[in-house]
């Protein structure tokens, strides 16, 4: 079965060029000058559209246990929503509960995901119980295709690791070639600030932001960088939100250290003003790190241009407003942390292209090519080239759409971007050669997605 995608402009990190793409089975068999490929069994007319590598969202939380509840997208609903939005790969976090092993955690995530995904998927491992056997098991995780380990400097008593534990895991990561991913916020100090606010009767969602100041993200980011320097481990800062943290990352990168960072659309488009919305509406925007003052946003866009921010992921972690965010109505500390977004990342970052903040090449690079290289999926994913998986998005840059809970496909009862007008829209999505989204709707299946056993970071200097 062959498919010809003709008449479009193929996007790569270098920008756009007119080309046709021939798909044979699950892979791309040729990329050639317009009119030179084919015939094929079917033709997709991409005239006036971009033909780009499918998005790779390297940070999602499907069915994640948190704060006595769990994120509401299953692997089935979450990966289907991702496909609607032009994302053809997710990397989800398998969460080690204290007192359990990394390998049993991996098994548990396989049980949840295998046979239940509309697109291909991989895992990172969250290490929340650093001990001799966890450290030993890190190599087995790598052997099982999971070469990246997230640790937390936040959430004391839940996921938090001490500096000593982080040091041990970094030493192991250095030894086995793995990457440490860091949630860099000073959770010990934050918990004191949050307790003080609550004791003073300050219970509203905006307190979540006010008690997690950007300085404590900057401080933790610097500390993580120094620990990585001492141990020699590659470090990837997840969901970077603050100018102070970005400055620390930029300084380390200027010195040649293997430090990388991602940001998320919510930090580029939403702010603490959303957290301050009345009638508990602010709870919809509670995530950690918190939404910041708008003044941080220009720095984040600049970081994306200079590659101090290499990746855009969503940190998709949906909790319903009605029965889940509610848990924190009398105490902002009990609001489940997370914002839905897996469906909208490609569209939201396209707004950066429209606004002149990003080139087309950087859009593709931050949303697809770099996450593929960073997490051992390149060139299978992240590029339109002969031999690569046919994970392809045909994107109409001129179409208009309005984001809304009424039209999104995520399994959550609100949109953080309600009413936002978007220029550009996904037209057609192929996942390993199969059309899963087209103008006539979703034609994929939640048994189609395959587990991606990943190589180690290919992006190290
Ligand atoms: O608030 C967030 N980010 N929830 C998901 C867990 C995490 O820290 O990534
Ligand atoms: Zn985190
Ligand atoms: Zn996360
Ligand atoms: Zn619900």
TrEMBL record:
Keywords, in A-Z order: Hydrolase, Metal-binding
Modified sites of kind N6-carboxylysine: 150
Catalytic EC class: hydrolase
Keyword Hydrolase in annotation: yes
Cofactor: Zn(2+)
Cellular component GO terms held in the UniProt record: cytosol
EC number: 3.5.2.-
Xref: SUPFAM superfamilies: Composite domain of metallo-dependent hydrolases, Metallo-dependent hydrolases
Transmembrane regions: none
First and last residue of the signal peptide: none
InterPro entries linked: Amidohydro-rel, Hydantoinase/dihydroPyrase, Metal-dep_hydrolase_composite, Metal_Hydrolase, Metallo-dep_Hydrolases_sf
Domain Amidohydrolase-related: 50-436
Homology family: Belongs to the metallo-dependent hydrolases superfamily. Hydantoinase/dihydropyrimidinase family.
Protein name, entry field: D-hydantoinase
The species this protein was found in: Amycolatopsis japonica
